[in-house]
Specification:
This protein is an alpha/beta fold. Helix content is 44%, strand content 18%. This is NAD(P)-dependent oxidoreductase.
């Protein structure tokens, strides 16, 4: 049995990836961080969902460098979550990840584990250049470029979640400006296609796209309605970063946004109850 190491296991994409492999009966090591009481609360809620599994072990990010893993293991690095989340100390996180990659490489190419990096599709990803440079020397490494991923547990820094929370334009406009609006995928559609993505393509750089045309705009209209025009100032021109893999969209925008709204309502109720304690 191989082990899956998920860096960002209590974030958004990373959480679903960890949960998916645990549901398959695989062993998962979750790596994460917390910057505030709010994120600590979210971590506790997610811990209730995956932490009970006997196949799951958690380590904080500062313990990552101590892990010894083998060549059959797979390491998922969610740069997508680092960019979309509201967190400080990004340089520290990246330094810890690069140190770990370089440590793994010292065992030689025949002993290096598989690395899979989830990268935002946006053109400006220079903050992750040290991670990209570090894995370039690993033949088995893959970079999966993600469009906007949405659904329950989406980061509060993303535009759909900000809109569902009915935040003001001062929060929503910068969220949209920093987000790829050319396409979108519902989180479980992405995760359920992940193993096929990794095995069906021999290419190093793979860009995921939805089987639904204009997916991001269809979701945004459900949230923002007629006011979308006042928010959406950036081009929706699609960006090409690698070989294209079309993910079957089994969850349509209406159902996906409804599920995210339902989860958001539940989470806000939990926050209110927690404040009473």
């Amino acid at each position: 049995m191989q082990t899956y190491i998920v860096i960002g296991a209590y974030q958004f994409v990373g959480f679903y990836v960890a949960q998916y492999f645990l549901n398959q009966g695989e062993e998962v090591i979750g790596i994460d961080w917390t910057d505030s009481e709010a994120s600590k609360y979210i971590m506790e809620e997610k811990e209730l969902e995956i932490g009970r599994s006997s196949n799951y072990i958690y380590f904080p990010i500062n313990k990552l460098k101590l892990l010894d893993i083998t060549k059959q293991d797979t390491v998922f690095i969610s740069c997508y979550d680092i960019q979309s989340g509201k967190m400080g100390k990004i340089d520290f996180l990246i330094d810890e990840i690069v140190f770990f990659i370089e440590k793994c490489k010292k065992n030689g190419s025949n002993e290096t584990p598989n690395f899979v990096v989830f990268m935002p599709i946006e053109e400006e990803i220079s903050i992750f250049q040290s991670i990209l440079s570090s894995i370039r020397g690993i033949d088995s490494a893959k970079i999966i470029f993600l469009p906007t991923i949405y659904g329950p547990w989406q980061s509060e820094g993303m535009s759909f979640e900000a809109g569902i929370n009915q935040l003001g334009q001062s929060d929503i406009k910068p969220a949209i400006a920093n987000e790829y609006t050319g396409d979108a995928l519902f989180i479980t559609d992405f995760v359920n296609a992940l193993e096929e993505v990794l095995t069906s393509s021999s290419d190093r750089d793979i860009q995921l796209c939805s089987s639904i045309d204009d997916h991001w705009n269809k979701c945004a209209k459900l949230i923002f309605g007629e006011s979308l025009g006042s928010f959406n100032s950036q081009s929706t021109t699609k960006i090409n970063k690698g070989s294209i893999f079309e993910v079957p969209s089994k969850i349509d925008p209406e159902e996906g946004i409804a599920l995210q709204r339902k989860h958001n309502k539940r989470l806000n109720l939990l926050k209110k109850w927690r404040k009473r304690d």
